[in-house]
Batch of 4 targets.
Target 1
Amino acid sequence: MTPLHLFCTLRCGARGLIHRGVLCTGIKFTAWDCRNARCYTTSAGQAPVKTMEEILKRTVAPLPPYETRDKSPPPPESSSVEFMHFYRSLDKEQKLEFLDRLSRDFGVDHKSVSELAAKAVETQLRDLPTVLQVEDRLRYILTPRYRQLFGHISRVEGGVKFLVDLRADMIEIISSKTSESPHLRDLNGTLKGLLSEWFSVGLLHLERVTWQSPCELLQKISQYEAVHPVRNWTDIKRRVGPYRRCYAFTHAAMPGEPLIVLHVALTEDISNNIQTILREFATVDTEEDVNKINSAIFYSLSSTQAGLQAVDLGTYLVKKVVLKLQGEFPHISQFSSLSPIPGFCAWLQGLLSSQRKEGRGAGLLTEQEWREVEEATGSAGGAADSLRKLLASGDWARSERLARALEPALMRLCAWYLYGEKRRGYALNPVANFHLHNGATMWRLNWLADSSPRGISASCGIMVNYRYFLQETNANRAAYLQNKSIAASDQVLGLVSQHQKNSKL
């Protein structure tokens, strides 16, 4: 089988091999740096910079006086380029130190804020124009110096992508608890706010990806796929071919970079098995029979930029794609996801471990179900330990007898995990939370819908349909966000009720 990157290279042909520093073969250019010698290089024509303090003082301009804020000239573009070049030359530990200095020493002038805040309180009894002017001054002085730096960088070619990648570094630092500096958290919040403005839905372009799309884009779509990995060029050809749609949001400031990608299967009915979708093949020249297209199944949604975490792109992408499909197929009546359930097996293992002292994990399985597990595994008296090992290894899925014995219990437990396990009142599972936040209904759990090793280890092979009843999404969304109420089908509610009867939860 021809590897995807090699096929892509052959297909590109005369269109050129190099695209913004990346070969279509997947081989990336690398730039020599001298970090080991502790020598930081700068833009051409400038003297080498040896300390972080110097580069920061040179590139982070002071906040202009309030009176001349609209008349102060911006710093030269070379200043932003120098900052970007310097940051990229640092290793992981140096980046942490650099960002810490930037956030701590080039943020808000707290002394000036305190003085102006006191003045704002004193002027509350004066005339309205005076009050408004003092408040405007206070808003201005609350601007961190680095916020202006980010604004200048965004105007440089490649600057927005640089800031997205910088925020990805910030998120990694904060999530790993490498640093718990409040200054770093404030910097992250400021940058997130700017990115949310720059990547608002009105500035995004919805692009359909087809087999005729640039090979560089197809390769990136393949590399970024996070839900169901693309195996080869035949696989990606299938996913953008007949009875399939692939859409991506792009941004003018990041040409050639898909920001978030949604894969859709056009089917006769709502799918209950992912292997059917992934393995079904139609040649590129196959004509679609509209009479066989009654449902649109969203089976993969992948965010490609870690730095855009918490910038809400997925919700808008789903809405845009629904409108697009309605325009192409006005008769489509069913919109649904076929979603993985990441975290279910890990949650279940934790639940079994916590109930280990009770012997069999009382209440999780019925007495009859425990007996069937014991008989199938030959582990009389130790079924709980055997079940933990089976779930960890995935061996149970290769035994028809064990799969049949475990199906009722695992379906009940999975329904409870999705519907009943909460974080701050909302669904604990991130995929469930996303679709419920969009107004979808938790519609159907599907047994052994993903029989791949990844599907078995993550969710015992179970997948779930979140169905979008278009007339109900706004009401469902409001009920979830305001009242933390989950819209669910009779099947899901029935499984939850069965679990509650058998459990102490």
Target 2
Amino acid sequence: MDGPMAQQTVSRCLQEVTTALNAPHILRKHIRFPQNRNERNLIKQKFYDKYGLPAVVGCIDCSHVAIVRPSEHEERYFNRKHFHLINTQVICDSDLLITNVDASYGGATHDAYIWRECEIRNHLEGLQDETVYLLGDSGYALREHMMTPVDNAVENSPEGRYNYLQKRVRCTIERTFGVLKGRWRCLLAARELHYCPETAGKIILACCVLHNMCIRAGIEGPELTEEEHQSERTRQVPFETAASSTQALQAGRRARNSLIQMLERNR
């Protein structure tokens, strides 16, 4: 086709492609959390081979995708930095593949709440006789299956060395966001999706499907520049330490202490 494409044509094509990529069978095929022990072991082994941290099945975090002011329930999407957004939760593996994504919550929702409502949390809690960890920042509550940093750890102590390794591995999710938003720049927090929240969420999911297709095909994508990374960090709301029930927190501390002791024995 010669000449510029009409806006109506672009909008129609975007809607058709987004709808196709959000079909349930497409999402199940391309964004899939490991469902059995063999699949989990494969991911664990890749994390261990790269970083030396055992039993990790993914890294988790949320990233903000700006949207225009919604016409309904604006308060759900307005964040503390005074713009509207989708707070998008992503879990990735060591290859930057997205294994789970939730783009249904607004910017007023805390990361920890999104995780509490996530079906993957129930899935991990239901596993028997298997050690599995997700790695999260201090915005998540420490649990048997959620390893977070140790607060106020002394450098070069066992806890400090654990924190260094945990952060190094957790950078995988930051790299995933960088590659995802480098490819699909409409997701950058400095920009805005000019769609209602439901449509914006579908666009985010579509971009995640395409991201995974590119990763599996070995197609390298442009990562964000340092200036763009800084812009992203500026627009993201700093995490707040998650509240935690005493019993679950104690179980998480025992699991984390066991992991720290094992890392020290293997030094």
Target 3
Amino acid sequence: MPRIAMVNIQEAISLVFEFLWTLIKVNYEILRGIWRMIVPPEPKDVSNEIVLITGTGHGIGREIALRFARLGATIICVDINATTNEETANLIKQEKGKAHTYQCDVTNRAAVMQLAEKVTREVGDVSILVNNAGIMPCKPLLEQTEQEIKLMNDININANLWTLQAFLPSMMARNHGHIVAMSSMAGMMGIRNLVPYCGSKYAVRGIMEALAVELWDDPKGFKGIKLTTICPSMVDTGLCKKPRIRFKNLMKLITPGEAADMIVDAVRRDVIETSIPPELHYGIRYNYRLIPFRAAYVWNTFFNTGVEAHED
């Protein structure tokens, strides 16, 4: 048999075995994922972690900060509003927690880089980064101004990239860290009056998925850096002033405290992606995507959940 033919046969056999081994690994990961849903791992200890949270001046950011502080973590409170940010730090300190405040415009890359240098020098290396800051204009696309859309993308998308560039290197140097990003249910499905916002939250999920691949594919294998993407539904933070919920017992408006409890629990259990409430995640991510778009639209119309247009 010619040498070339022998090589081709060997390559074919090798490819078959590689494919079969890949199938085994894929099914193993599926079964492991199902098992982790049924029997979640024990929450990890965060008492020695330095947790930086953006948008801690109010709402979910403040509540996340309080909960991590109660678990013994050192909290870096970052917000553009120095007054409300200081209020959050004072609440933490009243509970004997450890908190430091920094005022920063996270849309400004240079400011974020300076923030990273200052935090590292004054407190230490950030080991948990929570990109929480965000805004949500609620009105039809054609009524949103260029300035509103650019600002929203700067906060909801670019700020994530700037903080990653600022704080990821120290995590990679230690192969230790956790990055948390706030996407949204609007990052998993289209919603009326939230066209640019949906785009920004889809972008957050894309950034986190691509970052996971980039870290895992790296020859150094940065498996010590965990990623968690959170997709809240409607949370009563003041951003969504006119929620529309048809089945209120099924999909109630969630308080910032309830959301923070679920977020901190997901981080401590190294959940890669979840929704708030968690039971919506697989229903939206898989069922909504497995059926044709028109069919998904019919379901969405039946549930009639979304936001009415309003000014900020």
Target 4
Amino acid sequence: MYLPFAISPFLIQCFVCATVSMNVLSNGCAYGFPAVLLPQLKLPDSPIPLTKAQESWIASIITIAMLVGNLSMPLILDKLGRKKAHFLVNIPAVVGWLLIIFANNVQIILLARLMQGLSFGQMVPLRAVVIGEYSSPKNRGAFLTTTTVAQTLGMFLVHLIGSLIHWKMTALICISFTLISFIMTFFLPESPSWLASKGRYDECKQHFHKLRGDQEEAELNELIQARMEHNATKTVINLKNSVEIVRKVEFYKPILLFLHVTLLVYVAGGMNLAVYGVAIVGLIMGPGVDANFWLVEIDILRIITNILAVYFMKMCLRRTVAFSTGVLCFIVHIAVVAHVIMIKQGITLFDYIWIPALLLNLQCFAISAGVLPIMCVIAGEIFPLAYRSIGISFGTAIATLFHFLILKTFPYLTSSVGIEGVYGIYGSVILYCLIVMWFLMPETKGRTLQQIEDNLKGVDRSSKIDCNTKTSAPTDKF
């Protein structure tokens, strides 16, 4: 079942992006759901009483399941293809929301969070693969960035809805996003890249033309030619040749880059603001401020900036976005350290409420405008087709560990070195990541995925393709 052929290729790409984003929106709701659930469960008349340990597990167990989801996705993507994989990731999400709707004890809620985390973890590599392979080079960055908009919007919606109605009714509304995504998946074509990797070249051409029209024949020719060469020499991966694969530059370089980009994302502070926002606002702005007001203001700014990031990715070079926002984030961290130290030392020259408010808003802007979106773009562009599933899954698995460690250690670091110490440590790590990225990160804007892969390998395929189908993308080596 597909969308009608009369629909333009661009609109079909938009539909693919909307299908994936609807699923990501549901993941965002699941991630932000504890902020709705836990306060209601701690009320005196709650039918499900909580201990401190249970409260902690409800909030954090999703990251453990995400790791399992990350690692399970490569086999699914390779064996079943992108479309069937998208069907499958909806199933644990639906089960998770249903378990919450009918939960009457903590154990069922924990099981529900595990199912949600499994779906979330599987969706992280899948969304990058699907949007990266289905979309045109000129639109790919913007489409990949919409996933961050969807995730942020999901967290905002669940917080908004959950503040108005019971947590079970909130879950009932949230499950609708997953069901809509499941229905939309019926109308998706299969990935041309996956079809080519399986030697199904006629189907590859058919689905490619559905997605791209007939204006991008050069990319199609490059894709098929590269897959023919790869399939002709393909060997089964085992312990003996796995070492050789790991030593290939097209395998280890994208993973190294992706790991440093994800580490930058987590130390930049976006996730800490989402989870420990009240504490962070109080420590930086002072105990007398209305932390909830400022968190809502930051949430609104995050959504607006995420939307602006789609434009930035469309119009600006990837490296320009990454390093301009990364440097801004580093400067903000150093400024927060200086401000907090001065206030603690009794230096009141800069003791104005607008200064820490401006710093927190600049931090949010830097993360939402470039630091976080660039991670999604890198995941969807940099990995070669042969290792795309396993590379993204391995990278996101390590990123999940970063996520877990950052969230777990933040309270202890704050207690031991203060908020200024935490920002100082994070600022140092940000600087390290930016230095490594400067040398590893290529410029991928406007390139086809095959051109990015060929440049990683040092392959010049232009001489093998008819000159009438050449694209104008640059051919400099990374």
